[in-house]
Every structure is written in structure tokens, then in C-alpha cells.
Amino acid sequence: MQELSSLPNVSKLIKRKLNDVNIYNADQLIEIGSREAFTKIKAAFPQSCIYFLFRLEGAVTDKKWYKLGKEKEKELVDYFKKYWD
């Protein structure tokens, strides 16, 4: 099993929050995906912002969050606005 911290964008804070919602390794995060993981984190930590979602998407797709591309960013912004804005 791959450590969460081995994925791009997974800082100590993100790892701790993922652990708090019962996501303990990279395989688990990749399996449930960025959106479901963010939904769990947002429920536990309501102040979590959209950049957290960007970081999770980058972790799942093995990219730095700022290299997701405009199309993916728009998709994530639309998703965030639909449920939390």
C-alpha cells in the first residue's frame, strides 16, 4: 500500500484530515476519488475550501493541483458550487 504522503499535493494537514475521515492510504483515496473524499472532509471540516478539492484531484490524478488544466478546474468549480456555494 502506498502512503498518502507519496501522492502529489498531500501535505501533513491533508493527510491528517484524510485520516480523520478514514482514508489511510493512497489506494483508498484513488479508489473513492477526489469528490467523494472531499465530500467526507467537507462534512467533517465545513471550512474546507475549493483548493482542498483541487489538491485531492491532483493527488488522485498524479498531478500538481495547479497543473490540472482549465477544463478540469472549471469542472471542479461547478461541482463545488453545486453542493457547497
Would you mind describing this structure in some detail?
This protein is mainly alpha-helical and 85 residues long. The protein has one domain (4-84): 5' to 3' exonuclease, C-terminal subdomain (DNA polymerase, domain 1, Orthogonal Bundle). Helices cover 65% and strands 0% of the residues. It has four helices and no strands. It has helices at 12-20, 26-44, 50-61, 70-84. Helix 2 runs antiparallel to helix 3 (50-61). It is globular. The mean pLDDT is 97.
The number of distinct structural domains comes to 1
Largest sheet: none
Instruction: Count every helix, treating DSSP H or I runs of 4 or more residues as helices.
Output: 4
CATH topology: DNA polymerase, domain 1
How much strand?
under 5%
Average pLDDT for all residues? 97
| First and last CA, distance | 35 Å
| CATH second-level architecture | Orthogonal Bundle
CATH superfamily: 5' to 3' exonuclease, C-terminal subdomain
Percent helix = 55-70%
| Rg from alpha-carbon coordinates | 12 Å
Give a short summary of the structure.
The protein has 85 residues and is mainly α. Helices cover 65% and strands 0% of the residues.
